[in-house]
Write a structure and sequence with these properties.
With 169 residues, the protein is an alpha+beta fold. The protein has one domain: 3-Layer(aba) Sandwich (Aminopeptidase), CATH 3.40.630. The protein contains five helices and six strands; from the N terminus they run αββααβαβαββ. The termini are far apart.
Length: 169
């Protein structure tokens, strides 16, 4: 599922925002940041994201039954946390920041976030991250706004914690 969701985020950002990749002098992939401009309508944002996912087809190993419904509900809960954290403030959304394992700890993530700040041009932005990444984002000047559990109904074993991070509020 990881590659499926990665492709969904890349597809979404490619269609409706910006995608910036960082490569070394040899052309090897170091990292990526995706940036989606402000939406006036949360519903439109959600529909655009759904459209991006639908073009990828059915996720591998997922059924369209209970499993898909549970994950859809969990994603919707994530988007509600995002909406509540931003309280109607116009902002950019960063669906994805990823750094290759070989490039971690070498300043690539910092450079990718600097790119996001330049693109946002003093407009706030929001991203979600796992617990292990909160300290990194705080070092980059982001504020920790919310921590919430992601628990797909009926799949409690898949529970994990997510954090809403903001910059420029």
């Amino acid at each position: 599922i990881t590659s499926y969701m990665l492709n969904a985020m890349l597809n979404f950002s490619g269609l409706y925002g910006n995608l910036f990749a960082c490569r070394d002098k040899d052309g090897s992939f170091l990292g990526v940041v995706t940036i989606v401009p402000p939406y006036k309508s949360h519903t439109l944002f959600f529909l655009h994201f759904a459209r991006s996912v639908m073009t990828l087809g059915r996720p591998p190993s997922y059924s369209w039954g209970k499993d898909a419904t549970a994950r859809f509900d969990a994603f919707n809960a994530c988007m509600e946390e995002h909406k509540n954290a931003m309280k109607g403030v116009s902002h950019y959304y960063i669906p994805l920041v990823g750094v290759s394992e070989a490039a971690q700890g070498k300043g690539v993530g910092r450079k990718l976030l600097q790119t996001a700040k330049i693109v946002a041009d003093n407009v706030p932005f929001y991203l979600d991250c796992h617990d292990g990444n909160v300290a990194f984002y705080e070092k980059q000047g982001m504020a920790h706004r919310t921590n919430y559990p992601m628990v797909p109904k009926g799949f409690e074993e898949d529970k994990f914690s997510y954090n809403g991070m903001t910059f420029g509020l």
